[in-house]
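Thread amino acids onto this structure.
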């Protein structure tokens, strides 16, 4: 009778451990992703209305914000925007230095007075695709590598727990 209770207790512990792991593992991998992966944004809409002087001219000194990099010093210095693609309201790609000037560190751009940047509607929208670093991103490759193994150790701990509780391995030596 005693062995039956121990077996039932082991099954209950195994079940609780697995449920607990399924609750924690997604949060652990999500936090790990913030530490190790840059974020990609596609089709972000930016209103460019303030940059227009009239229907045919652009104020070339009016900065438009893609992503507020300057709000955090480490992002400004160590993690500028990358893979920036800007398109006008008609989804025509704008050309860097010809149609706009990008300040990737600050996360801003200014339009140049060209045909592609002329307002097509009163809500002239500029669409942006870019890659940026979230708050918490590790800019050092070594720290990203260390953070990358957190999930592996959690998965190995879960595997060890399941194997021990299911009786496949015996870590207690009894």
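Threaded sequence (174 positions):
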């Amino acid at each position: 009778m005693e062995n039956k209770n121990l077996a039932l207790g082991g099954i209950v512990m195994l079940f609780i451990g697995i449920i607990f792991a399924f609750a924690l593992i997604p949060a652990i991998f999500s936090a790990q992703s913030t530490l190790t992966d840059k974020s990609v944004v596609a089709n972000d809409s930016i209103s460019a209305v303030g940059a227009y002087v009239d229907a045919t001219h652009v104020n070339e000194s009016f900065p438009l914000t893609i992503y507020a990099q300057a709000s955090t010093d480490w992002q400004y210095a160590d993690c500028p925007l990358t893979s920036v693609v800007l398109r006008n309201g008609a989804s025509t790609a704008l050309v860097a230095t010809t149609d706009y000037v990008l300040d990737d560190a600050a996360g801003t751009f200014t339009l140049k007075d060209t045909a592609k940047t002329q307002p097509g509607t009163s809500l002239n929208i500029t669409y942006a695709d870019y890659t940026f670093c979230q708050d918490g991103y590790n800019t050092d490759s070594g720290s990203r590598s260390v953070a990358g193994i957190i999930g592996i150790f959690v998965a190995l701990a879960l595997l060890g727990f399941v194997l021990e509780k299911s009786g496949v391995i015996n870590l207690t030596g009894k």
